[in-house]
Amino acid sequence: MAPIVHVLGARPNFVKAAPVISALAAAGAEQAVIHTGQHYDARMSEVFFDQLGLPEPDVNLGVGSGGHAEQTAALMIGLEKEFTGRSPALVIVYGDVNSTIAAALVAAKLHIPVAHVEAGLRSFDMTMPEEVNRRVTDQLSALCLVTSPEGIGHLAAEGVPVERTHLVGNPMIDTLLANLDKFDTGAVREAHGLPERYVLATMHRPANVDAPETAANLVRRLHGVADLADLVIPVHPRGRANLLAAGLDEHDRVHILEPLGYIDFIAAVRGAAAVVTDSGGLQEETTILGVPCLTVRPNTERPITITHGTNRLVTFEELVPGVRKSLEGGPAGGAAARADERRPPLWDGHAGPRIAEVIMEFLGE
Fold this sequence. Notes:
Blueprint: E1 4-8, H1 11-26, E2 31-35, H2 46-52, E3 59-60, H3 68-86, E4 90-94, H4 98-109, E5 114-119, H5 129-140, E6 143-146, H6 150-157, E7 165-167, H7 171-178, H8 185-192, E8 198-202, H9 206-209, H10 212-228, E9 230-234, H11 240-245, E10 254-257, H12 262-270, E11 274-277, H13 281-289, E12 293-295, H14 304-307, E13 311-313, H15 316-327, H16 332-341, H17 351-364
Parallel strand pairs: 1-2, 1-4, 2-3, 4-5, 5-6, 6-7, 8-9, 8-11, 9-10, 11-12, 12-13
């Protein structure tokens, strides 16, 4: 058989791919993994292969950072060579990063079918690069593998034929549930000298960190959060310079960490009194863990984390009052119980096998 090729480029891709690769291996599929190197810091990429049981990538393109055009062009050149040499039966892409759209474009022009894991998510904000990536990728995909029900409607509204669309659940949650017993919050607190009670933050969206004046405004709000409780922030490479230049570390209760591996990061999230983020995947992970999540964005492509989880959207002005309210809301266990009662449909730890079943049936046809 010609191989199924997985294209992975950034932290969320690895977490979503692990259960899919495992389920396809159990089904006897020939597979290859291409790591594009879009996230090139070992703590943002290589560590996930060790921690999640992913096979070592067959190739690492080592693309690294750059502007959108520069990075996407380099990705397309490297992927075209790989796809031409491997002649895959199917290319599987994940999420909405530049590696995702680059792989979909190259595969489509080489007449190789594409399967998009996490299809149908929409923020309806075309200023977000991720929104552009996910919309175009869905149009190019032979299989749109959808994580939450509203995605079905979004794809239908955009003219995607219903036979290409499959509601399969969320493989990121497969990975989370499979590793629950490894998330040792106490060990992470001890390793990094963290207090027992803290708020965890992650901020990396261009709209929040790229402009120095916006980053400075954000830092003032984060210092306001630190006035309420210790603030733990693993600083993403994107925005690091602007946030530090704005004085992020100039508060006694701000704990700045380097990026963490998956196990340590989710352990830190699990033990947080609240999470402040602009990430997409973290909205989903906190939904399952029952940790209050405040997403500093005007919109989300994951509204199910609001209707069925612990997430809510806040502006800069609403951030500190929102955190105060979360901290006064009682123990996280209550939120966890509520989150478990209304867990999104098919977020049950079995998305990987459902995806493998759809893919093997497609290839059989």
